[in-house]
Amino acid sequence: MYASREDIGYDFGDDSKVGSKPIKPNPNIDGGWAWMIVLSSFLVHILIMGSQMALGILNMEWLEEFNQSRGLTAWVSSLSMGITLIVGPFIGLFISMCGCRTTAIIGGMLNALGWILSAYASNVHYLFLTFGVTAGIGSGMVYLPAVVMVGQYFQKRRALAQGLSTTGTGFGAFLMTALLKYLCTEFGWRNAMFIQGAISLNLCVCGALMRPLSPKDLREKCVVRSDSEENQAKALSHSTETIKSNGVLSEEPEKKEEAANEEVLSSVQHVEIGGKSASGRSMYGLRLFKTVSQLTVTVRKGFALWYSSYFGAASLFTNRVFVAFVIWALFAYSSFVIPFIHLPEIVKQYNISREDNVFPLTSIIAIVHIFGKVILGIISDLPCISTWNVFLMANFTLVTCILTLPLMQTYIGLAVVCALIGFSSGYFSLMPVVTEDLVGTKHLANAYGIIICANGISALFGPPFAGWIYDITQKYDFSFYIAGLLYMVGIIFLLIQPCIQKKQPREKSTEEAQV
């Protein structure tokens, strides 16, 4: 249907041009330290996304502990998952000012703090603040840098690298489900959350591994992409491109603003030199003022870049296909997270807890999800295969499984559907690649931040909605049906907009021919 990347979107401006002479690529691009970035991102997905996929275990503990409705209790899990993704665009501001490494380390500490404080919760509303908001924001501050850094370090095999790193979600869901079950059984859910908070401190180590590329490396980065129509490689020279994930500004500031900032700092230095005979208190005040001035300059530059990226003239929302992609994201993610939160309750209702204890359905989704991400990543990297088409086929399979799941009331039937859900949901590894194809590498950080923000909104309202429907009907069937239909609406938007995008140039050329 769409054989090349150009068929599914366009870039904002010419952020890459074919150079006359190929530039020698940096050894850390597609190799070397790039694999350490993949390892770091893999561990981040285990500790963050994997833990969130295992929250169904804690959700049952909270239902018994606080004796609240399923709709209200589900808000704890949905807040954590939703806020992790919703804060994506705002985390871009931190990345612009501090870089990915600093942002991820701070986020790791905040995430661990949220888990530890939640161990002392006295009611569900307390968990809203500690686990939902605090741990959620911390997770978001680690998750976005982990994704963006992989996109920066890889060019030739970006889909495979993203697939390998995001398999951490499947591994994490499998490991964390077993770990939380064991900890809750042996120590209780409060001590389990305290221990999980200590484990989450490893996110700081993952952030420390996110070594930024130098500006020289970024300017000399050679991008080689295979053209599926011509089957030849093109060397692309990004002379001014700088991805925001390393904290270096991709656009030069205005000369007037830069001159004014330098003038302020130089005047402070002159005053400091001339005041050597002054008291130590005055010198300390001057140094403090100089530090504050430098910090102010950094914040202003970062905010200006962040603001122009989202609200400037080159707005991402001028791309119709990207807008359709955002609409799809608003409905898609809830269909994936609802089974993880409510499947333990469904298993209990169908009296198949004995089989589920041997091999939990959520673990089946998690394990097959690993293979789905890797296999779909490998398939989409083939020169004769369109990443866009693979992405759409996986979405059709997933929405079919969501609509079919309520019809299965045996363990075998649910296991088969859950396996298909796990494999088809492997399209998550393709989302950064599809996003880059739509808006270009230059806008990847901001665009992907918007996409995961839309996914966060979907995750925020999905589980509570399913719980609310259950409180009314005493069944989860309608929850899956409604979620599946909304998901289908999002897929239809993805199908319509690319067709309009391709049709407009043809109509224009016909009119010119008639003239």
Q: Would you give an account of this structure?
A:
It contains 20 helices and 3 strands. It has 515 residues and is an all-alpha fold. The chain has 2 domains: 186 residues, Up-down Bundle (Growth Hormone, Chain: A); 193 residues, MFS general substrate transporter like domains (Growth Hormone, Chain: A). A 3-stranded antiparallel β-sheet has the order 1-3-2, with no helix packed on it. α11 packs antiparallel against α12. The N terminus and C terminus are likely disordered.
Question: How would you summarize what this structure contains?
Answer:
Residues 237-248 have a biased composition (Polar residues). The chain is mainly alpha-helical.
Topology of this protein?
Blueprint: E1 17-18, H1 34-53, H2 55-66, H3 70-86, H4 88-98, H5 100-118, H6 124-153, H7 158-166, H8 168-200, H9 202-208, H10 215-219, E2 222-226, E3 233-237, H11 255-274, H12 280-311, H13 320-349, H14 353-358, H15 361-381, H16 387-404, H17 411-424, H18 431-439, H19 444-473, H20 477-514
Antiparallel strand pairs: 1-3, 2-3
Helix pairs in contact: 1-6, 1-7, 1-8, 1-9, 2-3, 2-8, 2-13, 3-6, 3-19, 4-5, 4-6, 4-12, 4-19, 5-6, 5-8, 5-9, 6-7, 7-15, 8-15, 11-12, 13-19, 13-20, 15-16, 15-17, 16-17, 16-20, 18-19, 19-20
